[in-house]
Amino acid sequence: PTLAVAHLVRVDWNSTPAEAALVAGLRVGWAAVSAPAARRLEALFDLPHGQVAVVPNGLPPAPAPVADRARFNLPSGVPLLVQVGRLDDRKGAHLAPALSWAVAPGLLALAGEGPFAPALAAAGVRLLGRVADVPALLASADALVLPSRHEGAPLVLLEAARAGCPILATRAALEAWPAPEAVARIIPREADAIAAAFRALLADRAGTAARVAAARAVAEACDEAAMI
After folding, report:
1. Were both Cys, which of 47, 67, 93, 178 would link to 51 (CB 3.0–4.6 Å)?
2. Beta strand ranges found along the chain (DSSP E)
3. In which band, very low, low, confident or very high, does the pLDDT at 13 lie, cut at 50, 70 and 90?
4. DSSP 8-state secondary structure symbol assigned to residue 27
5. Which of left, alpha, beta for 73 (phi over 0: left; psi -120 to 50: alpha)?
6. 3-state SS assignment for residue 165
7. DSSP of 62-109
8. What is the pLDDT of residue 20?
């Protein structure tokens, strides 16, 4: 038996009749990481409605991460906003130079690699490169920002939720989550608006704590055992 899993199905993708016929003839089980992705995959390849099952991402068991900014050469005593992922347009890394200025005197730090790295470094953006222990970085931050154009069910959101790190994300990044407004502050792909949302998150302690608790509950339910 073979399982074909779609992690990302973009709304602007198209298939040819020949591709759709080939896919329809495959003897595989189809799955996607979110209900919207599943429906888009069915439309993309003209599959019967409901043929693509939803199998959400899940995190394996792990000890609680420990906050330690010094481990990442990051200063203490300033608001810290982190972004984790490939440094490209899809993840919104092009916003980093303007966002760095907009969140000052807070600090924006990006973890990951990608084609935008040289330009971001030249613009003075704090780049951490590839980070082995992402949960520890998230536990050290005041918030995670994920200004993605397209997503499926990004693991970093589950990691942030389990680490107790507040989330700023686009609706596209949160499409796999029920009631996204209850677990995160929804942001556009615009630096000043993201910075304003970050300041509001820091000021609204009660609201932020409620979203963190709701996100943690989702992450606990969407664990590796549930996925399997």
Report:
1. 47
2. 3-6, 29-32, 53-54, 80-84, 107-111, 126-129, 143-146, 167-169, 185-186
3. very high
4. -
5. left
6. coil
7. -PPP---GGGGT--SSS-EEEEES-SSTTTTGGGHHHHHHHHTTSEEE
8. 85
Copy the structure tokens of residue 97. Answer: 């130079």
Cα 195 → chain centroid = 18
CA gap 51, 191 in Å, rounded: 40
Q: Which two tokens stand for residue 62?
A: 């792990």
Q: Count Cβ atoms within 10 A of the Cβ of residue 79 and give its class: 0-12 exposed, 13-18 middle, 19 or more buried.
A: middle
Residue carrying structure tokens 């481990």 = 71
Question: Which one-letter amino acid corresponds to residue 212?
Answer: V
Over the chain, what is the mean pLDDT? 95
The answer to whether 73 and 99 have CB atoms below 8 angstroms apart is no
Output 140 or 57, whichever has higher pLDDT.
140
